[in-house]
Amino acid sequence: MRDHAFSFSFPWLAVLFANLGLIATPTAADTPPGPFAMEWSTTNFGPDGPWHAVQVYIGTPQQPISLYPGGTLRSHFLTPQICSNKTLSPGSCYATVGGLYNSNSSSTAFINSKFSAFTDFSHGGLRVRGPAGIGALDDIRIGQGAVPNATIAIHNDVESIYPGGATQALQVGTLGLGYLGTGQLQSFTGTASALSGNVIPGYLKAMNITSSNSFGLHIGSVRPKIPSSLYFGGYDQNRICGNVSSQQGPFANIDGDVPSGFIDLLDISINVIDGSSPWNTSSINGILTSGNSSVGSSLSVVMLPEAPYLNLPKSTCDAIIAWLPVTYQPNIGLYTWNIDDPQYLKIVSSASALSFAFRKDQLNSQNITINVPFSLLNLTLEAPLSKNPIPYFPCNAQSYGKYSLGRAFLQAAFIGANWNANNNQGTWWLAQAPGPNIPSQSSAKTILDQDSAISASDNDWAASWKGAWTALANTPTQGPVDLSSGILATEAVDEEDNGISTPVKGGIGAGVGICALVGVGAAFFFIKRRRRSAAAAATIAAKLEVESLPPPVPSKNNDKQLAEIYGNPLYEVQGCYYNERFRPAESHDRPQTPICELAEGRAKQPVYELR
Ligand SMILES: *[C@@H]1O[C@H](CO)[C@@H](O)[C@H](O)[C@H]1NC(C)=O
Ligand SMILES: *[C@@H]1O[C@H](CO)[C@@H](O)[C@H](O)[C@H]1NC(C)=O
Ligand SMILES: *[C@@H]1O[C@H](CO)[C@@H](O)[C@H](O)[C@H]1NC(C)=O
Ligand SMILES: *[C@@H]1O[C@H](CO)[C@@H](O)[C@H](O)[C@H]1NC(C)=O
Ligand SMILES: *[C@@H]1O[C@H](CO)[C@@H](O)[C@H](O)[C@H]1NC(C)=O
Ligand SMILES: *[C@@H]1O[C@H](CO)[C@@H](O)[C@H](O)[C@H]1NC(C)=O
User: Fold this and answer.
1) Of 421-435, 572-586, 596-610, where does mean pLDDT reach its minimum?
2) Is residue 430 a contact partner of residue 263, using CB atoms and an 8 Å limit?
3) Atom of ligand 4 at shortest range from CA of 484
């Protein structure tokens, strides 16, 4: 067996993966050891999630820390220094939520400041700045086991930069998912003595705790609730629906080395899985290359569980959002959902998905589609990115040419790898993961040392979303209907009811007001009453025919903020305000969003604010 030797671009550091076959103690046992389950934190994390994270306990005595599973080799930890740095943490220190690692208070910590790590442990998924991470070793307890001298990197001052120039301290570190070779990392620092540490899945294999240097991961989702799953040496078969695509080569490369783990993204489309379409067409294809001939026939992307967004060309984000009620926020380079637009609730609760077609098995004759239901793309920006929580759509148009699919995508996808398969060159897998309706018992399967194939469950993907999404009812049979004008199909229009109708079925609209002009043929609109108390939660919507509306009158409301946002003059109809462009009686094309709810004389609009 060969050793794998790599060189970093640092002249003073070379890394060698020693073959640990010698220290493994293969037994003659008939049953190979089964998969090793990781423990997940009961807390979830932002500020662009919510996201699940795994729970580990590092050092002696043990310090509990939550980490996003992702990246190779080392696990990356944030230190308490990130909180004492007033530039990085001016007010609150958000990084405390996941736990900070203080190597000074661990008797088993071994620091080698010369053995530095890359700063950017998001691997280009965010724009990260700061000094290099410090190489270290410490004992980590994971799940029902422990890894002594695990190879880690610690970060004191690391921050992500947003397009508007704002910076934000990173909040959660990462748990390395392994690498080629069999688990031990040795570094040579010139003539200094070697430091050797363990890489988690390789160590588990070397100790015969698992059967292979491999992992199977589905990060799941916080809202809607899809529990997370991470195994070393195996995978939960229930997390795989339909075909599996296998790629040869490492799932990802080590920090700073030539990137690998690419897969060709062939197209992005919008599809309706069940019920009628929230759009004026049943599906939308050709989104990936839309409006940009230089994308070519495919785009090479990597999977980045260590990073949050869908990092795509701006042209692709633009082509997606042309179909969504979202607003670009240039300061953060992301899109916030227009929660008052009737299309918002309709889309994020409907049985429709953003679908990603990839080249399957590296063949030019096959493809595999991963559907990401829109409810998974109704994520939340929280402090410090936004003063108040706001729903956002995670397409990141500021990808700087580094295209990747982060946690937003991986909520809906299974990924796994066997680092030792394919003659120690690695094999990795991508498959559709299920929605919230998953069997409560996992079906953990073992991956053997040289296995290059894993198998899917018989679970039906669409069935896994039943009950979690609302298939839009068929359009009322009253002639051609332009769905883009925004009828909420959860409340089929009752022709005889010309006064009051109950909007939005239970749960879906909780906490979100609807106040918008919608239309079916001869346009109706619903006015949501102000929310006053819990008792008033049973919202009442008035349904009026546009023709019967009084002509708009210039508003007497002198609210400056309203005028700044919506323009001057404002028009008032039935207590709601419209701007010049969207005067209700003259609206023909898009659903309009009047402002009906005024709190303390101000429009209840989300306030976007970067610190
Ligand atoms: C961990 O590494 C240190 C430094 O190389 C070494 O002294 C110690 O014996 C190692 N501990 C274990 C349990 O291997
Ligand atoms: C605080 O963090 C910033 C940004 O990483 C860094 O430039 C600065 O040197 C740090 N200050 C201290 C006192 O560590
Ligand atoms: C078009 O695609 C190319 C190649 O992927 C990319 O470099 C460029 O930024 C894209 N243009 C826009 C406007 O997104
Ligand atoms: C369908 O909706 C899209 C996106 O809102 C819009 O650009 C397009 O003009 C509409 N097409 C028709 C035929 O109404
Ligand atoms: C995927 O494969 C199917 C069946 O061969 C084909 O109809 C479809 O066009 C392919 N999709 C893409 C995006 O290449
Ligand atoms: C969308 O996200 C917001 C939080 O940002 C949440 O309150 C709301 O319930 C979500 N809506 C749906 C339909 O998932």
Assistant:
1) 596-610
2) yes
3) 2
Instruction: Choose the weakest-confidence range: 11-15, 61-65, 165-169.
Output: 11-15
Give the DSSP letter of residue 226: B
Confidence of residue 559 (pLDDT cuts 50, 70, 90): low
Task: Say yes or no to pLDDT of 593 above 90.
Answer: no
Ligand 4 pocket test, pick from 272, 280, 589 with the greatest ligand atom count within 8 Å of Cβ, gives 280
Q: For residues 269 and 127, what is the distance between their CA atoms, to the nearest angstrom?
A: 27
Instruction: Give the whole-angstrom CA distance, residue 461 versus residue 15.
Output: 42
513 lines ligand 6 (CB under 6 A): no
**Pocket flag, ligand 5, residue 357 (CB < 6 Å):** yes
In 70-134, which ranges are continuous DSSP H helix?
81-84
Distance 58 CA to ligand 4 centre (A): 54
Type of residue numbered 133: G
Task: Name the residue with the closest Cα to ligand 3, atom 13.
Answer: 315
Find out whether the beta carbon of 266 lies less than 6 Å from any atom of ligand 5: yes
Q: Are 309 and 394 in contact (CB under 8 A)?
A: yes
Ligand 6 pocket member 389 (CB < 6 A): yes
Structure tokens at 539: 């919202």
Cβ-in-10-Å burial (0-12, 13-18, 19+) of 602 comes to: middle
Q: Helix, strand, coil proportions of the chain in percent (round to 5)?
A: 15, 35, 55
Per-residue pLDDT, 400 = 81
CB-based contact 270:352 (threshold 8 Å): yes
> In the structure, what pLDDT confidence band is assigned to residue 555 with cuts at 50, 70 and 90?
low
Query: What phi, psi does 462 have (nearest 5°)?
Result: -60, -35
Assigned token pair, 388:
């108040």
**Residue 293 or residue 244, greater confidence:** 244
Half-sphere exposure of 271 (CA within 13 A, CB side): 17
Beta strands 75-78 and 145-155 are parallel
Give me the mean pLDDT over the 135-164 stretch.
94
Distance from C-alpha of 50 to C-alpha of 479, rounded to nearest angstrom: 42
Task: Please give the distance, rounded to the nearest whole angstrom, from the Cα atom of residue 177 to the centre of ligand 1.
Answer: 22
Nearest ligand to residue 398 Cα: 3
- 149 Cα–ligand 1 center, Å: 6
Do residues 185 and 151 lie in contact, with contact meaning Cβ atoms separated by under 8 Å? Answer: yes
Indicate which ligand has the atom closest to the C-alpha of 514.
6
Per the document, the length of the chain is 611
∠ CA(239), CA(36), CA(203), 5° rounding? 125
Cβ atoms within 10 Å, residue 478: 11
Tell me if residue 593 falls in helix, strand or coil. coil
Looking at residue 263, its amino acid is: I
